[in-house]
Here is the input.
Amino acid sequence: MRLVDAFARTARCYPDRPAVVTDDGRRFTYDELDERSTRLATALRERVGSGRCAVLSLNSPVAVEAMLAGNKRGVATLQLSYRVTPTALVEMAEAGAARALVFDDDNADAALELLETGSFEAAIHAGDRPVDHPEVESYESVLADASPDLPPGLPEGDECAVLYTSGTTSTPKAVLFDQEQLWYGAVQGVMEHGIDETDVALCTTPWYHMVTTDAWLYPHFVAGASVVLHSEFDPAEALELVAAHDVTGVLAVPTQLRALNDVQREAGYDVDSLAYIRTGGAIVTEELVADTSEQLSDQVYNTYGMTEAGPDLTFAHPRAQEDHPGTVGKEAFSWEIRVVETAPLSADPDPDATVDPGKRGEVIARGPGMSDGYIDSPVAEEQSYFDGWLRTRDVAEKDEDGYLYIVDRVDNMFISGGENVYPAEIERVIESHPDVEEACVFGLDDEQWGSVVSAVVVTEADLTEDEVEAFCRGHDSLADFKRPRTCTVTDEPLPRTDTGTLMRERLVERYVGE
Here is the structure.
């Protein structure tokens, strides 16, 4: 099934239900959202034919309407990040071959820079801010003048979205999805979370990310539920929205969850309506699950996914985490996941070389929701996609019951004295210290050992490097070669992407460069 057909069914069944509610009080029913997205689809076809449209916007109805309009055209919407550099924006738009650009007030300056490339045939501004550019049209005027009926021949294809990887080490890679691939992710979300038309979801993560698109927006639209769009994350404002709209579900990455828990602990907002919390995107500790269960909801879902394959490779339901703390769960219904002996990037891993329970290997996955590859990175595509499988580059292990545990990224591992060291293991230990906010571990070149463990520890307490090292020495789970040999204590937050992924290279440059 295609997402365009799934949304048409929702609009027929629940025309008067609120589809989108904004944090500034605007409200659009499914019938209104259906008409507005149709008008945008016809307007874009008049201006750029079958050309793709890029969108640069905060979480807003405009972003949602553009997604739906793309589906109705059968032409992918480029979901651009507003947090990358101007150079990266140009590269992202060029990789996806965008011919139209839709943007909001908050991103007008970046959009005008992007228009200077001369690559766009149409530009549409949604907002009240004056924009001095002769080729930019008003979004509401464009919709008012457009036909409310789709012309014959639409949708003309099955494209859905161009989504972008996190880009922690380079320019984000462009990944093209069709409507059936993302439909699988949407339906998995509906099934696993039990979403129906009575639900109200709070959207706090940026709309342009895979997890927001296919784990949150599309599942709720497919089910006929309501989505409250939080334009930019603020923990107190998010909790106010939960209380004001009787929100039933929240998607938040671990860094956001910690902030929500901290505010809720002090302010005590009315969050009784919350039925569940979904998280993932970074390591979810037992302590975070316990704190979230106490502050927000005891129904915490830990999930595992990636841009190239969708957000729903695995689900760890609350009941599973009770007996298997730290797990990301088992493979979702349309996926096959194996943990196999890893291989260098120059060679494909053997799908049949699975490791025994308790042993570590690399996660590979396949399923109908997987993308076909990168638009703009043939070398990376050759290294990641093989024989219908996707290499995740994640190190993991399964227990005897088949539950998956993510250890670290293959690329983060380093060797000290001939032993493999996975930074995430050590980070979890350091972060279990009651005064530590977060930590990053990496290998520091050493003439004798090859590399030694180095740590950057974030705390607001009066914690010393010696105390951190003593804490690690006293922890039974850390072998001697895994203990930090150097440690930097700081009160500056670690650099992360907006999905919570630690930007290790930037951090190493910051501290080792000093």
